[in-house]
């Protein structure tokens, strides 16, 4: 079955600038929703991924930028296995907290050489 890379992306949104941090009760509710989503889609979740941290650009040339840092665009990743792109997008889009004002998910099929 195909695998898909899901990238949490920062998106321009007028609502994201005014959004307050969730309260402890809201966070607890979000985690409960996330855990229910994770259990419902356990068979499709190959790698829950995580947030991205520090990185470095490696190239054949010893150029030093200016490069856009991935962490400025991508908040995190996960890999899902699904029948097709639409099914993968449905799974990723249903993840609580992944799609919200100022954030979306980009779903990309992973092509494995020789497969």
Automatic annotation (TrEMBL):
Residues 25-103 form the YCII-related domain. It comes from the Bacteria. SUPFAM superfamilies: Dimeric alpha+beta barrel (SSF54909). Pfam families: YCII. Belongs to the YciI family. This is YCII-related domain-containing protein. It comes from Plesiocystis pacifica SIR-1.
């Amino acid at each position: 079955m195909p695998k898909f890379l899901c990238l949490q992306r920062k998106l321009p949104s007028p609502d994201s600038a005014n959004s307050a941090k969730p309260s402890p009760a809201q966070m607890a509710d979000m985690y409960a929703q996330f855990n229910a989503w994770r259990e419902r889609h356990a068979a499709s979740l190959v790698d829950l991924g995580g947030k991205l941290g520090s990185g470095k650009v490696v190239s054949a040339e010893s150029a030093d930028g200016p490069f856009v840092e991935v962490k400025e665009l991508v908040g995190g990743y996960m890999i899902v296995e699904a029948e097709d792109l639409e099914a993968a997008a449905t799974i990723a889009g249903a993840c609580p907290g992944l799609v919200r004002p100022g954030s979306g998910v980009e779903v990309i099929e992973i092509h494995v050489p020789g497969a």
